[in-house]
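Predict the 3D structure for this chain.
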Amino acid sequence: MKRLLASEFLFQIFALLLSLIVVHTVWVAVVWPRAEAHLSAQAERIAAGDTTAQPQSIFVILKDYEQESEVILFFWCIAIMGFKGAQLRHERTLFREPLVQVPAGTSILPDDARDYLRPIQALPPESRQCLLPRALVAGLQRFAVTQGVQDASGAIRETCVTEGERLDSELSMIRYIAWAIPAIGFIGTVRGIGMALSEAYRAVEGDIAGVTDALGVAFNSTLVALLLSIILMFLMHQIQLQQERLALDAQSFCEDRLLPHLKITREMRA
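Done. Predicted structure below.
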């Protein structure tokens, strides 16, 4: 488990650096030059007396530092969710593995539990750390020690519930990023309004270009932040749904494939 957490942490650091480098490169090479060209052409049209409304450029909307930061965080969050999605897919593949092969009508006694543990313990370390193998191991080991089917069922349920809570807690970084993006958008709004107020004296004199540019910063940063947050919240809820289904399906798997075969003799009851 510690190895898995360490690899996830390293992946997050690498994903953040990669997102920062790629997005900043795109901004330097594409967004800023095209936004500047669009604004220059717009200024030339206004100077020539052309006051007709022109469609807004996506590059002008994205040109400010707040929007760049929001996009960096967005792709970082997408990378983290992709990593967690790959983990969930790996967990799902174990449901098709012959972890517990009990023929119909066969009973598993407490002394037989160790024999059924061997195929699970022979899995690679990465697979043994997954939820389904750990739930099966917990149930079989508890059954071997306590010789009680109810105790085995409780161990399986406890393992699945604990794993579900752990998976939910690991979404805290995604939740933070989903909150941080609108916060950066509001920072851009405050900055833009402050810039607009500092240009108010020019607007009184008839030059409203500075005010409109500043208000563009204010509104564009919030617009981009809200759009990205909508996408992230949808994807985050999909990841959370898959995690909850994994915990429930692991518990159902154990209850259907393992618990019905656990038996104790009358001598054990006595």
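Residues 2-269 form one domain.
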